[in-house]
Amino acid sequence: MSRWLCCSFLALGLPALAAEAPVYGPELEGFDYPHPVKRFEFESQGKRLQMAYMDVQPAKPNGHTLVLLHGKNFCAATWEGSIKALTDAGYRVVAPDQIGFCKSSKPEHYQYSFHQLAANTRALLEHLGIRRHAVMGHSMGGMLATRFALLYPQQVERLVLVNPIGLEDWKAVGVPWRSVDQWYARELKTDAEGIRAYQQNTYYAGQWRPEFDRWVEMQAGMFRGPGRELVAWNSALTYDMVYTQPVYYEFGQLQVPTLLLIGEKDNTAIGKDAAPAEIRGKLGDYPRISREVAARIPDATLVTFADLGHSPHIQAPERFHQALLEKLGTPR
């Protein structure tokens, strides 16, 4: 057993393990996904890793595949509604958990980069024999989807960005840098109450419904579990990746048709809580930054939802998926 898990068992203690709130393992053991989870085993940076994913086939295939890339505080499971809408429309859907997240490996030492995660995802798709597909990324997954499309444009039929983060460069506008150790200390404090309060304000624009608690407990359960320190450490490493590796300056280089689906009540900005008061209120201004980025992408279509937050596909699934499918049309 790794030092992370040993320490975590001691830190957690028996009373917490006995609590009624769900407790999940470091690879989200105990949390059920909406479709069977498969695992792609591969070697990266000298380590044997496994990447969990769902590969969902439609009843009536239209010949096209959509790859769904989750966000920082999300998992492949949070695409549940989108998987149903897309497979009902004939798409094959592949939804992986990235290395460091959810049901996939969480190495103690790994050089996280969007380039590496994109390469991992491409290796999975090659394993599945998928060579042409669309990519849809939400939140941090939007940064990853952008990097994937920049690296492998011949492979991508269409890029869809759902409230992506990275539409601004937080370093450049004055958000202070945090060390990995500082992120780690912050992540160790993660609990359901804090997750729920943040999601209420940012993800759902104050429009809370009881079914959203499933996604709160999905994340909180890992921080209650025996692998909480390993989960927190990987989360800290990936926060550093998000902060230090902007895609902001490369949107103009995209060579694929791009659809942006934006809930305008979103105000997400990494490190906003540490930003000086005079700039904090200017960060995460999605009505402004989404339009600025859409204007820079050579072949972009922008669809906005004035009343929705950071997770429009979860908050208003019928409206979101109607807009998505109308704009997707017939993929190239």
What would you note in describing this structure?
This is Alpha/beta fold hydrolase. GO terms for molecular function: hydrolase activity. The protein contains 13 helices and eight strands. α3 (114-127) packs across α4 (140-151), α6 (180-187) crosses α9 and α7 packs antiparallel against α8 (213-224). The chain is 40% helix and 16% strand. β3 (65-69), α2 (80-88) and β4 form a beta-alpha-beta unit. The chain has a single domain (3-328), classed as 3-Layer(aba) Sandwich (Rossmann fold), CATH 3.40.50. With 332 residues, it is of the alpha/beta class. Strands 1-2-4-3-5-6-7-8 form an eight-stranded mixed beta sheet, sandwiched between helices. It has helices at 3-17, 80-88, 114-127, 140-151, 170-173, 180-187, 192-202, 213-224, 228-244, 277-280, 286-296, 312-315, 317-328; strands at 38-44, 47-56, 65-69, 92-96, 133-138, 156-162, 258-263, 300-305.
Q: How many β-strand stretches?
A: 8
Biggest sheet record: 8 strands, mixed
**CATH architecture label:** 3-Layer(aba) Sandwich
**The first-level CATH class name:** Alpha Beta
Helix-strand pattern, N to C? Answer: HEEEHEHEHEHHHHHEHHEHH
Computed over alpha carbons, the radius of gyration is: 19 Å
Helix fraction by DSSP (H/I, runs of at least 4): 40-55%
Low-confidence runs of at least 5 consecutive residues = 5-19
Q: Into which percentage range does the β-strand content fall? A: 15-25%
Mean pLDDT: 93
Summed up, the domain count is 1
Number of helices: 13
How widely separated are the two ends?
48 Å
Described by the principal axes of the CA atoms, the overall outline is: globular
Strand order of the largest sheet: 1-2-4-3-5-6-7-8
CATH superfamily: Alpha/Beta hydrolase fold, catalytic domain
Q: CATH topology, which one?
A: Rossmann fold
